[in-house]
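Box S1 | Example of a co-folding query
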Amino acid sequence: MRTVELFKKKTVLSYEVFPPKPTSPVNTIYETLDELKELSPDFISVTYGAGGGKNNSETFKIASAVKGYGIESVIHLPCTRLTKEDVSQKLNELKSIGIENILALRGDIPSEGCVQGDFKYASDLVAYIKKQGDFNVIAACYPEGHIESKTKVEDIQNLKIKVDAGADQLITQLFFDNEYFYSFAERCQLAGINVPIEAGIMPVINKKQIERMASLCGATVPKKFIAMMERYENNPIAMRDAGIAYAVDQIVDLIAQDVDGIHLYTMNNPYIARKIHESIQTLV
Ligand code: FAD
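Box S1 (continued) | Returned holo structure for flavin-adenine dinucleotide
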């Protein structure tokens, strides 16, 4: 099923998982999926390392397994190192395992300092995929602007190019202050970007994780979030519970304001996904 169809019926609730690190047993992801399945997500997306790491082949296996669980599956596909032939080969593979939803990404620029493959921007990949078959293409977007963009206006203009190239729906980068999302949604409307936009929410598990993520993607960390992290940084259980409460608060507000969907960065932690699901299941 094309995941864009889901937005016609309800507020979409999806989860993101990643292949376990090579140092962790690969089975842990299947235990995670067993638990996520119980929460009946609208779809699960599986990340893919732009660096071309070993666990990329796991992405395809996990995305295929998600389908086997009876859940719609989305595969992430960053293209910084891919040629057109590589992408065509991957699309054939996806067709053969029945996956029709792709999150088309540029990926972060490799340490060599420039794109190594045939695609400069995600919009080039989106257009290429659309020509190759009847895939539902999702793209990334950035409520606070992408870290490389000089201005938010430039970023929205580039997003419009990506949507015009064929992106059917969007998922945002994580953010901790909903006001960024609301003003981004307004900029999208002004620019004529009318596809469904899911808000990406990442519950804090520990202070280091959030500091790393926020610095990588340039997300603003609000004062009340910092206060929470400082108060509970030495108490992992309290930090986890406060992080869940913060994420639930964000989600309740977003749903009340008619968001198209919530994409939860689960960090492969089914306990957190379950707690959040329990708090919001009557709202979606
Ligand atoms: P693009 O849309 O190409 O944008 C990159 C930059 O180029 C932006 O600053 C944009 O404004 C600018 N730009 C775009 N088009 C043009 C143009 N035509 N002319 C001039 N400038 C332009 N990374 C991974 O490696 N693996 C993953 O699995 C993964 N999953 C992600 C999931 C989500 C929901 C999100 C939000 C991000 C994910 N990322 C992942 C990170 C992503 O790859 C990075 O944020 C990357 O730096 C940008 O990717 P993009 O697809 O948004 O790129």
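The mean pLDDT is 94. The pocket of flavin-adenine dinucleotide is lined by residues 47-50, 76, 78, 103, 105-108, 121-123, 140, 146, 148-149, 155, 158, 161-162, 171, 173, 200 (CB under 6 Å).
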